[in-house]
Amino acid sequence: MKKDVLKKLNLVLKIIVSAFGLGLFIAHFVAPETWPKTMSYLVTIILPFIPDIFEKIGLKTSVRLQIAYVLFIGLAMVMGIDFDLYKTWYIFGSPCFDKIAHTLSGVLGAFVAKEILGRNFKKVNPLFSGLFIVSFVALTAAGWECYEFLYDKIMGGHMQTLIADGIDDTMWDIIGALGAGIITAIPLSN
Predict the structure, then answer these.
(1) pTM beyond 0.90
(2) Tens-digit pLDDT profile for residues 67-99
(3) 105 and 171 fall within a common domain
(4) Are 137 and 118 in contact, with CB atoms under 8 Å apart?
């Protein structure tokens, strides 16, 4: 696709995701018992534009990566949190949306790591590249789980108890992201 088309698509996706956040934020004031997640709706409005904020301070990302990011935000925030798919989408009697989101975060993390490598190194040994990508995915997956834990402890949230309590949920989230990161690293590291 031409770069201009990708830029327009990126902007349209950002506006759509933010519009969902704004619409749900307004719906909260109409029916707060049905739409109770005010802070999530506000975050949904802002998150699509984080790459633009990073660009202002000199951290540029490709338009393709920004599109993948916005699609992930739409999946994880709008569908998962705002529309409660984390709690309501079951396969074989088990909630699965959380695992899908964490697995896709491993794929997205691998592409972010590859972009970091591509911007900073001209030629990289494929073994180093693969190790860097997998390490980056592992760090971001573990970092996210630490964020969930701290958010729950400090803010009184329930991010780690949306589906199941305990270490099993946390470990499966990390394993899902890491597994997807490893699989994605294979073609990206060459």
Answers:
(1) no
(2) 999 999 999 989 988 888 887 887 777 778 888
(3) yes
(4) no
